[in-house]
Amino acid sequence: MTISMFMCRLRQPLINVPCSGKKLNVRQIQKEKVVLVMGATGTGKSRLSIDLANCFPSEIINSDKIQVYEGLDIVTNKISKEEQRGVPHHLLGTQNPETEFTANDFCDMSSQTIESITNREQLPIIVGGSNSYIEALIDDDDYKFRSRYDFCCLWVDVSMPVLHSYVSERVDQMFRSGMVDELRPFYSPDRDYSKGVRKAIGVPEFDEYFRREAFGDEEVKEKLLGEAISEVKLNTRKLAMKQLGKIHRLRNVKRWEIHRLDATPVFRKRGEEANEAWRKLVAEPSAMIVARFLYNNSNTANVVSGFRVPTSETVMAAATC
User: Fold this and answer.
1) Does the record carry Transferase as a key word (predicted)?
2) Do 263 and 151 share a structural domain?
């Protein structure tokens, strides 16, 4: 269901600021609302952001430092146009893959985008696994973000053993979907994998395979291919653990209020059972949290009444980042 755009304009006022022992009647200062969707790679962040955007009038800002680049849609698991379901997306596949998109670049561009979205009376939803970019935006040195915005953090969590199994399956699916052919144009004989989209997991791992592809026999190529795929799986699992560690730091050290949604049971199911588990364990609880955040009201059952997750999607297909 769609909530009135007007309700997304609710803000938290700050009035009667004391100064030199006197109370000043200042013009009401208001804060806009921003939602963050966090989690390790493969947990379903993109799916949840779309579910929320179909419940609240929203636009989505990508905060994945690799998905921001053009190209490598399979390797970087960009959400497809079909999966976006008409929801506007920003900073997704927009940057030159040969240049370096820094945390400062993200802060500048996302700040402008947030302001543009709120001016359209829409809710900005920032989604992605690059927690260092999100941290740089929220905890900027001059306190600019927090002075203008209230934010709500949702964390889609999946137990590591379950997630590791899913990640391995996902890499196999990427291979079947044409990952090798997509990677081939990005092979660099100079092996400069320190900037741009070539930092993506998958590009450096296939360097040796492409380097020797034209000279080795079929047995050698098959061996190198298997080693490259195994390395992609290993490095993706390492990335997931690193991302999880950063979320724990933000929650336990920096004391961010982060709402955890345990999606582990979803990944243990298939088909319609998985969809139903996602709705009950992730989508509906998230919508309730966001509704309370937006409307400052504990009675939010009517907001998510009739909330539905499309049955044609499965977790294996839709957990795209």
Assistant:
1) yes
2) yes
Chain position carrying tokens 């696994």 = 129
Sequence-separated (6 or more) residues with CB below 8 Å from residue 53: 59, 60, 87, 125
| Inter-residue contact 31 to 97 (CB < 8 Å) | no
Are 44 and 70 contained in the same domain?
yes
Confidence band, pLDDT 50/70/90 cuts, at residue 216: confident
Pairing status of strand 18-19 against strand 22-23: antiparallel
d(CA 246, CA 248): 5
Are 156 and 261 within one domain? yes
The yes-or-no verdict on residue 264 having pLDDT over 90 is yes
Q: How many domains does the chain have?
A: 2
Residue 131's CB: how many other CB atoms inside 10 A?
Answer: 21
Distance CA 205, CA 279 (A): 36
- CATH code, domain carrying 193: 1.10.287.890
> How far is 198 from 128, CA to CA, in rounded Å?
18
Alpha carbons within 13 angstroms on the beta-carbon side of residue 174 total 29
Q: Is the pLDDT of residue 294 over 60?
A: yes
Same domain, 204 and 288: no
Residue 130 sits in a domain whose CATH number is 3.40.50.300
The domain in which residue 76 lies consists of 31-160+256-318
Q: Which residue has the higher pLDDT, 274 or 295?
A: 274
CA distances from 48 to 56, 94, 116, 121, 146 (A): 12, 22, 22, 21, 24
Q: Count Cβ atoms below 10 Å from residue 195 Cβ, excluding itself.
A: 13
64 in Cβ contact with 129 (< 8 Å): yes
Residue 26 lies in a domain: no
Token reading at 269: 């199911």
Could you report the per-residue pLDDT of 13-67, keeping only the tens digit for each?
332 333 333 333 333 457 999 999 999 999 999 999 999 999 999 999 999 999 9
pLDDT of residue 17: 30
Please indicate, yes or no, whether residues 270 and 122 belong to a single structural domain of this protein.
yes
Measured from the Cβ of residue 198, the count of other Cβ atoms closer than 10 Å reads 21
